[in-house]
Amino acid sequence: MTHTQKRIFTSQVVMVLSTASAVVGIGFLFWILGVLIINGVDALTLTIFTTEGTPPGSGSGGLKHALVGQLMLVFYASMFGVPLGVLAGTYLSEYSQKSKIGEMIRDISDIMMSAPSIVIGAFVYAIVVAPMGHFSGWAGSIALTIIMLPIVLRTTDDMLQLVPSTLREAAFALGAPKYKVILQVVYRGAKAGILTGILLAVARVGGETAPLLFTSFNDNFLNMDMMQPVASLTVTMYNYATSPYEDWQKLGWAAAFILSMFILAINILGRLILLKKKVK
Amino acid sequence: MATIVEITEEKALEVKNFEFTYAGADVPSVKKLDMPVAKNSITALIGPSGCGKTTLLRSFNRMHDLYPGNKYEGEILFKERNILLPKEDLIRLRIQIGMIFQKPTAFPMSIFDNVAYGLRLQGLKNKTELKDRVEKALQDAAIWNEVKDRLTHDANGLSGGQQQRLCIARAVAVEPEVLLFDEPTSALDPISTGGIEELIVQLRERVSIIIVTHNMQQAARVSDYTGFMYLGELIELGRTEELFVTPREKLTEEYITGKFG
To answer: Do B66 and A173 touch (CB under 8 A)?
Structure first.
């Protein structure tokens, strides 16, 4: 074999290997989606959205309680997590001026991002659930907030840093005070990126089960009181899917399908926002 | 010692015994510098990279204050006050002394909002007046005809040369007394460069201009006075036609004839 032939051969081997790996990876994704859609659509009926949980075997139960509970948990988590994360990210990018404290917050936030979510659940159990004496929706939202915070913080920080410093200088050079530079120029430049980061963080906490297991716990009926245990799609799915009753298992599939579509939609929305930004 | 020509005009700015040291640096980047800046004229600063000309330029509107730890010494006199004093109101100073940057810095908003930005900062809310002043600024920056039909469009859709003229419009809209140009054409093609140079010359009637440039021909084309800086010092400041034809300092001569730099 000549040198050139050898290079062509190596190139082809690497190409075949990498293509095969990609196919395997994507194959699993579509397999999961396929199973989910087949079983999920099969279990999906309109009554699922309008009825609450019923005892196993009755075959007439729905997921209304879990859907509403899930939305409540994620909504309140976002109410706390998004402003806190965006403000903290703004501090890091715009005010910390590469100080030691800023670097420390950044590092801690990175560590928090990879912390197992069940550990965060246990932490919230210890500081909220145990003193209160019972599970509650608030405890669940707090756990989700803690998971959300480092993601929002880091994307905000990263996206703000992408705004060229000359743009800030240009605003300062026109006599703008710092808060106006940040609000009117820097945020505008980083808007699409921050929004996408927020959406991805919402999608991430929307799929969490472990931290909810021992914070918001679960409820088989609709409960809007955040001081009491609140149902969620994820925990409901876990309970129903592991139960021995066929109608509950079917509802578990439906819950899995709804949750996946919800998260898929948020992800696609996030990508669209970025795409629109780039086309401009 | 530096050779500094007598300035016959009124002075817009006067630098006295000025030193500037960047945060963490041991030696100052601008050393013991004295320099007058003539009013309603164009002063060009030339010199090799790292000679301190941009550092000096960014001291006139205290841009260095955005980053902690930088140190000014000496005086820069503007309207009979030393603007280096800590009590200086930086917002007022930056309204009076505007700046144009190397790369166009159009804000991510519409063309109109870009030009109105500085005016709105000053609290101008009246819609008709705002409209008039934006139009006037765009006309002054010779870009009105190109953008008058798309004032609501995103400013980032403009070409580089148009964006730079938009930035000039934004800067002149607030009617500054001094405009600082930091290599304003180094990111532009020759035709846009010509347009910006013409504009700078026209602006001289209303503002005093200091321009930092890497391009000696540009300095020769547009400026009334030229200062040559080297290693943080002002070597020579002279009338442009004299400095380029009969430089008094050997270093200046070597630089403008291309012996180094």
So the answer is: no
